């Protein structure tokens, strides 16, 4: 039997990194795994099932955007090089200063990309976002027009373009929809926290824009399975079904479920889960919001943060987790996140196990919060 690949995960304590490490650990897919993160496991809100996969001797604390840390990150005791490197690192918070993304996202990607090329890593996977596409009436395919609409998207696209220029880098780019699942602390989490407050206040949850706004999703377990499937495909003779002429030099894949998730679908699920009325603000209010987004977002946050803190204290949650109803204005844009994921299925032969977000899957997310004592 061929030796199992060795795996380095940069940003391995982040949401996707930890689940990738767990997937590899549970299925015994690698000969060796190293998790690198600038945070410590004790401070990363890890659920107990991640302890073995992410901590102990597997973990190295380092900031991968700093050149002097690269040797410590990449060097192995046996002098061999890593087979697969997954870059799950970078700034995931919204609305930060440009400099933050330049250093922590773009700078980090280029530092580890150059090092991976120098060391002859067999496959380097860069995680990117569907927010790099120019929204269109039909879902974006990998070759479609690019026009990033969030700061994360702007700097991720720069990273994609710069990495593609690195001589000898075996690069694959993966563009993700909104990732949700157990312990998620972004996007779906914000909506769930908001709904929890509206339920407590006994008021309706009103959404901006329209029910047709596309907010495509993908479940974390499908993300980790896809990442692993892509590296397998890349390293076992991918050239057979990859046509550089029509598809481009760098293999690029959208990872998005088949449910074509919209705001309407999310409002529907959340209404069912919480037993609250959900509806959409009319055109007039949405138009006003568009012109005054900053102050609208501030008002919503002012309205919700106090009651959320009260709910936590009533529930006796003294050490609040990573959840909050705080709304980022970048996430409130009326821009479609709409992607076509058929290339991954056709080229890699990948099948989604959770093809659509559902009431059951959202309830599973809330259950995971309760288990961690994050949920009031």
From TrEMBL:
Domain NAD-dependent epimerase/dehydratase: 7-237
InterPro entries: Epimerase_deHydtase, Lipid_A_modif_metabolic_enz, NAD(P)-bd_dom_sf
Matching PANTHER family: BIFUNCTIONAL POLYMYXIN RESISTANCE PROTEIN ARNA, LD23561P
Protein name: NAD-dependent epimerase/dehydratase domain-containing protein
Organism per entry: Podospora didyma
């Amino acid at each position: 039997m061929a030796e199992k690949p060795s795996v380095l995960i940069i940003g391995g304590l982040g949401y996707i990194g930890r689940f990738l490490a767990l997937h590899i650990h549970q299925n015994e897919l690698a000969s060796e795994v190293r998790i690198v993160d600038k945070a410590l496991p004790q401070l990363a809100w890890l659920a107990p099932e991640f302890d073995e996969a992410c901590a102990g001797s597997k973990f190295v604390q380092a900031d991968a955007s700093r050149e002097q840390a690269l040797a410590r990150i990449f060097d192995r005791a046996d002098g061999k090089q890593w087979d697969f490197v997954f870059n799950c690192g970078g700034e995931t918070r919204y609305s930060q200063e440009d400099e933050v993304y330049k250093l922590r996202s773009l700078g980090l990607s280029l530092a580890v990309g150059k090092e991976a090329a120098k060391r002859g890593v067999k496959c380097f996977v860069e995680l990117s976002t569907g927010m790099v596409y120019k929204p269109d009436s039909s879902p974006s395919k990998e070759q479609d027009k690019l026009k990033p609409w969030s700061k994360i998207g702007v700097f991720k696209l720069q990273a994609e373009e710069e990495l593609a220029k690195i001589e000898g880098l075996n690069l694959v780019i993966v563009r993700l929809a909104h990732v949700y699942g157990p312990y998620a602390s972004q996007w779906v989490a914000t909506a769930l926290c908001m709904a929890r407050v509206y339920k407590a206040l006994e008021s309706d949850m009103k959404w901006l824009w329209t029910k047709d706004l596309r907010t495509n999703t993908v479940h974390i377990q499908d993300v980790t399975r896809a990442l692993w499937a892509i590296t397998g495909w890349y390293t076992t003779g991918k050239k057979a079904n990859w046509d550089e002429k029509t598809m481009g030099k760098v293999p690029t894949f959208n990872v998005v479920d088949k449910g074509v998730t919209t705001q309407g679908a999310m409002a529907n699920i959340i209404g069912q889960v919480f037993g609250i009325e959900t509806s959409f603000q009319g055109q007039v209010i949405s138009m006003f919001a568009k012109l005054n987004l900053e102050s609208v977002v501030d008002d919503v946050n002012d309205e919700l943060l106090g009651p959320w803190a009260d709910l936590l204290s009533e529930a006796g949650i003294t050490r609040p987790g990573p959840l909050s109803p705080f709304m980022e204005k970048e996430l409130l844009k009326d821009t479609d996140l709409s992607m076509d994921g058929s290339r991954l299925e056709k080229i890699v032969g990948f099948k989604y196990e959770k093809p659509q977000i559902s009431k059951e899957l959202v309830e599973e997310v809330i259950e995971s919060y309760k288990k961690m004592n994050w949920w009031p």
